[in-house]
What does this fold into?
Amino acid sequence: MMEQIATQMIWGNRIVDYLIAAGILIAGFILLKIIEFVVLRRLKEWASRTATSLDDFLADLIQRIVFPLAFIGLFYFSVSVLTLGPQIKKAVDITGMALLTIFTARFVTIFLTYGFSLYWKRQGSDLVLEKSLNGILRVLKALIWALAVIFFLDNLGFQISAVIAGLGIGGVAVALAAQAILGDLFSYFAILFDRPFEIGDFIIIGDYLGAVEHIGIKTTRIRSLGGEQLVFSNTDLTNSRIRNYKRMEQRRVLFRLGVVYQTPLEKIKEIPGIIKEIIRGVDNTVFDRAHFFSYGDFSLIFEVVYYVIGPDYNTYMDIQEKINLGIFEAFREHGIEFAYPTQTLYMNPVTPPA
It folds into this structure.
């Protein structure tokens, strides 16, 4: 009796075949759940003891992608032991291909998201950079899903190659028409990843200077010292020599001063030491040198070099003011006179004729 029931045919398969398929599905499901519980638990415990985020990412990836794919593969394998009709088999194959495509696209997008997040953290978790990376990530995700749809339709037998060829020709035409825009777009990527400057940096491009306010896909905006906004295409910036004062670690300062020719030799010898002591007494400065430089038209010229620690221009001007006031006061105490433009006229008396 049981043998007759087991061998009874339903929709082209014996009941025993359905039982075998169900047994494979149930046993495989239980086995995968046990593996998932054991592996993920140990992997998460191990990840919690490490300082890196890679193991946490791998644990999340296994839970979100690997095990769902394993369950899909188990279902497909259990169904494959049955004799299915053409329509049902086609539906199962299409469903399997669709799920495989979806999870593959998700796998790639998850990796891209993790890579962008890692890069963002290594760059100091800048909020402006995060906004730019999110914009690029959305474009890449759209491209990945578009490729996934094309792959899926191609495997279903649709003639995608002709459509792609048409899009390719149209894309070339659009690229030629929008060459300048594409150039600015690629320059934007260069600025984003190479980071020659950032928002808030004070830069000089040729005869223009100002603080960076906005970095866009096509243009970058700079606020000049005069108050007006300067707009540069990204291509112009990447093709230019840019001086970034925000990243200046120390500022080299050179200045000269002159004293009168009537200054005694002893005091001339003291002047470099006087200037040296004044500069060393000012915070955030590093003295380099002070020398009797040359004989001028109306003065003895001294050249002084020192460094200001930091890029801030106002700090530099405050320091230079302190140094100038200190030199003025010290020269007055030592009786040293600053030179100013003078001329000496020698007149010979004219002897009247006899």
Q: What stands out?
A: The first strand starts at residue 9 and ends at 10. The chain has ten helices and ten strands. The two ends are 167 Å apart (CA to CA). The longest helix spans residues 86-122.
